[in-house]
């Protein structure tokens, strides 16, 4: 099945037409900031080329997105207003912001658009129809959204794994096209699931094994090495019979991890040392210990320097690398070295390097690592993982219809 691209839509001509753009503007905010301050605007920048191309071609551009996980009703904690301001700054002129999704404000904003102007609707998840499991409820919301456009462009790669009204049901109602971001993401990820150049090394981190289980199962037969850090490494260390002190542990996953280690045939590499602390805080007393001798009561919050060196060594000859998930609590300075060290090792790889995900991509930028050192930085965490798991992605399916 072929997917029609934004270029096709531009060739067909958009001047004076209303184009609905589904973007993933679900950006992180600085914790506790008031007024809310965007911590990383990478996702806004990533969709900019699509919005600019449509605007410059004279379309009336109606952008829509979710932010966070509000419960199907308006919630000021999840307003897209700060995102509208940032988007306006990046576009070089203010955009119009609707204070609802399909109500009076949205209708007025769309009706008031001149050719080449941009509007952003309020958080789609303020309407229960967006995420509903009931196709009728989703469809009713999709009808209202679709009424705002003459064509639909999906450039929300980070949300293509969600069977949501704006992702799955709106494209069924309008001529639909994939934006450049979605197309590029799919192309790169297809390389990873197809025939990647070897050695193919995957680095996984993040807190929960349960979130990564499906991707580990799918990747194990395909990769040459699987390096595991982050909070999830402690459940693997426990499965090897080591005590992990007060570190994060998913007890119910220990047996599963033992089974994975047995089947992995030595492909899985775990940290040999970890940075432990007496508390989860930037001013904690820290210590580097062997991963097999974590003292009782201590929390492992990062991989240690020996592990970074071993991971870097495993990465050095790689021809394809996929990385998802931080190696430690990189937001706190004493626990950032593991993520920084592994990220820097990946930038030195001579081959295709892909950073998967919201969190890992944000970590790269937060640590000030040069983004150009990576082959591709995905805007989708869950979406890229589900792609690698081989799952059908509703948003991509809808574009193929
Ligand atoms: C993300 O940040 O992973 C995407 O924006 C999707 O958000 P969700 O996991 O809340 O659906
Ligand atoms: Mg997510």
In words, what does this structure look like?
This protein is α/β, with parallel strands linked by helices and 401 residues long. 37% of the residues lie in helices and 15% in strands. It contains 15 helices and 15 strands. The strands form three sheets. It has a six-stranded parallel sheet with strand order 3-4-2-1-5-6, with helices on both faces. Helix 9 crosses helix 10. The protein binds 3-phosphoglyceric acid and magnesium ion (MG). The site of 3-phosphoglyceric acid has 9 residues, from helix 14. 3-phosphoglyceric acid (3PG) binds next to helix 14.
Briefly note the structural class of the backbone: alpha/beta
Task: Supply Rg.
Answer: 22 Å
Low-confidence stretches: none
Side by side, the strands of the main sheet go 3-4-2-1-5-6
Spell out which ligands are present. Answer: 3-phosphoglyceric acid, magnesium ion
Strand content: 5-15%
Measured as a percent range, the helix fraction is: 25-40%
Ordered list of secondary-structure elements with their pairings:
Layout (H helix, E strand, L loop, with lengths): L5 H7 L5 E5 L19 H15 L3 E5 L16 H11 L4 E2 L6 H8 L6 E3 L14 H12 L4 E4 L10 H5 L6 E3 L1 H14 L6 E5 L4 H11 L5 E4 L4 H7 L14 H10 L4 E2 L3 E5 L8 E5 L8 E5 L1 H12 L3 E5 L12 H11 L4 E4 L2 H9 L9 E2 L3 H9 L4 H7 L1
Parallel strand pairs: 1-2, 1-5, 2-4, 3-4, 5-6, 7-8, 7-13, 8-9, 13-14, 14-15
Antiparallel strand pairs: 10-11, 10-12
Helix pairs in contact: 2-3, 8-14, 9-10, 11-12
Bound molecules: 3-phosphoglyceric acid (3PG) and magnesium ion.
3-phosphoglyceric acid binds next to helix 14.
């Amino acid at each position: 099945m072929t997917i029609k691209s934004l270029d096709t839509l531009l060739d067909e001509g958009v001047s004076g037409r209303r184009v609905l753009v589904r973007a993933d503007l679900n950006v992180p905010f600085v914790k506790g900031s008031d007024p809310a301050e965007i911590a990383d605007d990478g996702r806004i920048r990533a969709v900019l080329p699509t919005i600019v191309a449509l605007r410059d071609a004279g379309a009336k551009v109606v952008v829509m997105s979710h932010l966070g996980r509000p419960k199907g009703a308006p919630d000021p904690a999840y307003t897209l207003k700060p995102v509208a301001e940032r988007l306006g700054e990046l576009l070089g002129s203010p955009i119009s912001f609707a204070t609802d999704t399909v109500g009076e404000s949205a209708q007025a904003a769309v009706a008031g658009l001149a050719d080449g102007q941009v509007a952003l609707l309020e958080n789609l998840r303020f309407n229960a129809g967006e995420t509903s499991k009931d196709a009728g409820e989703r469809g009713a919301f999709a009808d209202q959204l679709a009424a705002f456009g003459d064509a639909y462009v999906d450039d929300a790669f980070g949300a293509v794994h969600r069977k949501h009204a704006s992702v799955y049901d709106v494209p069924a109602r309008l001529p639909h096209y994939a934006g450049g971001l979605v197309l590029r993401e799919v192309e790169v990820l297809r390389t990873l699931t197809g025939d990647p150049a070897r050695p193919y090394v995957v680095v996984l981190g993040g807190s929960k094994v349960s979130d990564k289980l499906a991707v580990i199962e799918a990747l194990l037969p395909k990769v040459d090495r699987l390096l595991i850090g982050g909070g999830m490494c402690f459940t693997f260390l426990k499965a090897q019979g080591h005590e992990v002190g007060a570190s994060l542990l998913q007890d119910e996953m220990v047996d599963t991890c033992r089974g994975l280690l047995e089947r992995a045939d030595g492909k899985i590499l775990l940290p040999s040392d970890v940075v432990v602390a007496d508390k989860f805080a930037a001013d904690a007393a820290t210590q580097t210990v062997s991963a097999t001798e974590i003292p009782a009561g201590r929390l492992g919050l990062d991989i240690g320097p020996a592990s970074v060196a071993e991971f870097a060594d495993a990465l050095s000859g790689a021809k394809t690398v996929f990385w998802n998930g931080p190696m430690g609590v990189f937001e706190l300075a004493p626990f950032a070295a593991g993520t920084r060290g592994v990220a820097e090792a990946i930038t030195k790889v001579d081959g295709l390097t892909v950073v998967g995900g919201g969190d890992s991509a944000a970590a790269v930028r937060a640590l000030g690592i040069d983004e150009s050192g990576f082959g591709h930085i995905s805007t989708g965490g869950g979406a890229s993982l589900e792609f690698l798991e081989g799952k059908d992605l509703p948003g991509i399916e809808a574009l193929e219809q």
